[in-house]
Amino acid sequence: MRGGGSLLPLLLLVLLRGLCRGREVAPAAVTCGSVLKLLNTRHNVRLHSHEVKYGSGSGQQSVTGIEASDDANSYWRIRGKTDGSCQRGTPVKCGQAIRLTHVNTGKNLHTHHFPSPLSNNQEVSAFGDDGEGDDLDIWIVQCSGTYWEREDAVRFKHVGTEVFLSITGEQYSHPIRGQREVHGMPTANHHNYWKAMEGVFIKPSMDPAKHDEL
Predict the structure, then answer these.
(1) Taking the model in full, what pTM does it have?
(2) What domain count does the chain have?
(3) Residue 72: which CATH number?
(4) Residue 26: inside a domain, yes or no?
(5) pLDDT (tens digit, 0 to 9) for every residue of the chain, 214 residues total?
(6) CA–CA distance, 170 with 35 (Å, rounded to integer)
(7) Less packed terminus of the chain by CB within 10 Å, N or C?
(8) Which residues constitute the domain of residue 153?
(9) Is residue 8 part of a domain?
(10) What is the Cα–Cα distance from 75 to 70, expressed in whole angstroms?
């Protein structure tokens, strides 16, 4: 009896650890509702937009890559394919469909069948109003594990046209001198890897019922 009694606290500890593991939710993952900057790991520039429209192609708001790490126009909010499909604080899964909404202008990362102005790849723009655009705002997060981990380099594949969000190094002149062209490419390669950088990351919740819908 004495020996069995001494084992009881140990058994309870093992049981509690097992229960806690079962409730863990990828604490280092990028989560829905987070606001972040995205770094292209090949060219060391951050995904950026601003109230400057393309002078050709769609004429929509331009999307570029910039070297500066402290520009407020490089923040993007992680949202679901539709409102309510990506609950606030939920880790983003590899293979999940998301929208990236530019924080300062409320437009979504978008691509369509227009040629990009410098490389003649596919134009990437920012489109919509107050976070509402259309079906060409949807991207699939491609990564190797279960969740989009903050330390991982990931790809974004466009659902509607199947191109990858990319940078190959072409630079604009006036009025956005030195900024890099962002475009869509049909092949997966080293030009389309992105990593989460500076931002406000919503912590995962142990209780899904407490999440706010986007």
Answers:
(1) 0.83
(2) 1
(3) 2.80.10.50
(4) no
(5) 444 444 444 433 433 343 333 344 455 999 999 999 999 999 999 999 999 999 999 999 999 999 999 999 999 999 999 888 899 999 999 999 999 999 999 999 999 999 999 999 999 999 999 999 999 999 999 999 999 999 999 999 999 999 999 999 999 998 899 999 999 999 999 999 999 999 999 987 644 434 333 3
(6) 27
(7) N
(8) 31-200
(9) no
(10) 10
